[in-house]
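Structure in, sequence out. Go:
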């Protein structure tokens, strides 16, 4: 079986080339052809000796993901659905803005964390993506966008690991993919422009700080453990106190001097002004006397059967006002790509519905609804992706 070279960071590709009797500089040439030029064919690598190209043809391949669909929004957002086999699909979303062009990519097919408000969480967990499948989303999007806009310049300026899956539960594939994003021989993105978003896998946050410290976003969504236990079930394992301590530790290695907290605004669930005041107290207690975090408030992006509502704009504004008044930088995410279901998990959910996943999830949802009732909550489900 041929080795897919998209699986490798530079160190891995050097080791592979050495196994073929080739030197490190050959690996750098190949790495640049793949990631900077978008080559998928060894014949295009014209500065490699014919004998090496032949050796590569015999032993290796550059295997992209299969594109199941592409949706383009009126606002420039592009969403791709990639078929990763066995009825599974993952999504990547390109979001152009005035000062940046961000690609949001996936780390797993489905997700085991099961956040109550998340379309992906409703689909359950299928499998981890490989490093090659993670980086292939960036490889495809970057070079496809260059072709469609007729440029040879870099298009994507930022990458966020905020699509399907919990990246820190797929750590061994995540780190080589991150290294390729950062490598000057590949995409050359700065650490500040690559963000890993986690629901709070505390031990892996510490490892990421040591192994590959990129910008960190944490899905918070609640100001206390009781509500967060329900919205983000991982909180039962790593409660808020432990999570915030890990965030403070991460700051010592982080490329930015703040952590971003993502907070999905759910009407009547977590959007009251008193809950904003609780959040202020929470972050101040974690690191007194320092402005160390910012909040990104995300209006819930409805998906079929979620049963949840987006907080009304005045409630979001009032919530943001409390945080801002306390000196915390607070932004409200613009909703993008509403016309193409750009919230992560929505298109993939439709694919999986055709593979009987809907039945499996319906039974899981019944169980979770019973649990929710037992805990006397009236929480619904939303999507942040
Ligand atoms: S919000 Fe993220 S961690 Fe939670 S279920 Fe969805 S994909 Fe998983």
């Amino acid at each position: 079986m041929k080795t897919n070279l998209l699986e490798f960071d530079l160190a891995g590709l050097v080791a592979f080339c050495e196994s073929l009797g080739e030197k490190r500089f050959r690996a750098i040439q190949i790495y640049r052809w793949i990631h900077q030029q978008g080559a998928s064919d060894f014949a295009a690598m014209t500065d490699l000796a014919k004998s090496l190209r032949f050796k590569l043809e015999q032993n290796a391949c550059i295997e992209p993901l299969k594109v199941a669909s592409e949706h383009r929004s009126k606002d420039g957002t592009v969403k791709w659905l990639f078929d990763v086999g066995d009825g599974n699909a993952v999504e990547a979303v390109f979001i152009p803005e005035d000062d940046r062009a961000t690609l949001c990519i996936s780390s797993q097919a489905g997700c085991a964390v099961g956040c109550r408000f998340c379309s992906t969480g409703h689909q359950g967990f299928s499998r981890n993506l490989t490093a090659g499948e993670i980086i292939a989303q960036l490889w495809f999007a970057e070079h496809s966008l260059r072709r469609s806009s007729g440029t040879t310049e870099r298009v994507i300026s930022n990458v966020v690991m905020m699509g399907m899956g919990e990246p820190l539960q797929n750590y061994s594939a995540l780190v080589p993919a991150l290294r390729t994003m950062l490598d000057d021989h590949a995409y050359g993105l700065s650490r500040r422009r690559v963000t890993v978003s986690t629901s709070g896998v505390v031990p892996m946050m510490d490892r990421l700080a040591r192994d590959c410290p990129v910008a960190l976003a944490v899905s918070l969504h609640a100001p206390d453990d009781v509500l967060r236990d329900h919205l983000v079930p991982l909180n039962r394992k790593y409660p808020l106190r432990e999570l915030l301590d890990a965030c403070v530790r991460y700051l010592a290695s982080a490329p930015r001097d703040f952590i971003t907290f993502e907070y999905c605004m759910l009407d009547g669930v977590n959007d009251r002004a008193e809950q904003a005041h609780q959040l202020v107290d929470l972050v101040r207690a974690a690191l007194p006397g320092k402005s160390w975090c910012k909040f990104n408030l995300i209006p819930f992006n409805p998906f079929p059967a979620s049963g949840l509502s987006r907080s009304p704009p005045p409630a979001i504004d009032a919530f943001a006002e409390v945080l801002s008044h306390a000196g915390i930088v607070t932004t409200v995410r613009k909703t993008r790509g509403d016309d193409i279901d750009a919230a992560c998990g929505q298109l993939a959910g439709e694919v999986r519905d055709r593979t009987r996943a809907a039945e499996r999830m319906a039974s899981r949802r019944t169980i979770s609804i019973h649990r929710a009732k037992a805990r006397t909550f009236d929480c619904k489900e939303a999507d942040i992706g």
